[in-house]
Write a structure and sequence with these properties.
This protein has 226 residues and is mainly alpha-helical. The chain has two domains: 64 residues, Winged helix-like DNA-binding domain superfamily/Winged helix DNA-binding domain (Arc Repressor Mutant, subunit A); 156 residues, Up-down Bundle (Four Helix Bundle (Hemerythrin (Met), subunit A)). It contains ten helices and two strands, in the order αααββααααααα. It has a two-stranded antiparallel sheet. Helix 4 packs across helix 8. The N and C termini lie far apart (47 Å).
Amino acid sequence: MDEIVEQIRSRIQSNELKPGERLPSERDLAEQLGVSRNTLREALRMLESSGLVTLKKGSAGGAFLNDSNSAALSQSLLDGMGLRQYDGKELIDVRVVLVNYVAEQACLHATDAEIEELAAVVSSSEEAETNNLDFEDRLERHIRFHRKLAQIAHNGISEALTGPLLEITRQFHKDAGPTDGLETHGSRRKLVRALRDRDPIAAKQALAKHFDALHHGVQAGLSGSS
């Protein structure tokens, strides 16, 4: 079984299959790999569990290669935290290291247009906070800011790692409940200014203040709910 899974992985890694594409039909793929359809189904279920493919039923169904397996990685990390394999402090430590790298790379590689797109996300998030919009809406805009920052760094691996960490952060925010996030927006505006100036040191300083305010708010929320 592991051999069949690795054969399919190898075809994906060779770019023979592209993200979002439908894998060959069950019959064709079984014939190509020289296995029974039952064996192939089991291998596909293993790949679905790992987050590599999505299995869809119906006339337009089949096995489709996912754009990413961040959802599976997020769940794996959440499960690990539930089993006390690691804790929130470790998550924060890793996020700080990763986001500092992302900010540095954004200073070097983001286009002027991309920086302005990030600035628009900051404005949107601050507007939602100022007008005290729905908590879920404010949280989504907060996540969007960090996703966009990771995107404009133009490093695929750091962007892929950012997604799962943000989903865990989203859960922390939900557990803590609504907090006053206005303090973080001043730091975000400073970050945008540093990106425009292509100043990685100033960008990291802005992020340090941002994370201090952010984590203080989350911890206060968790203490209040306990």
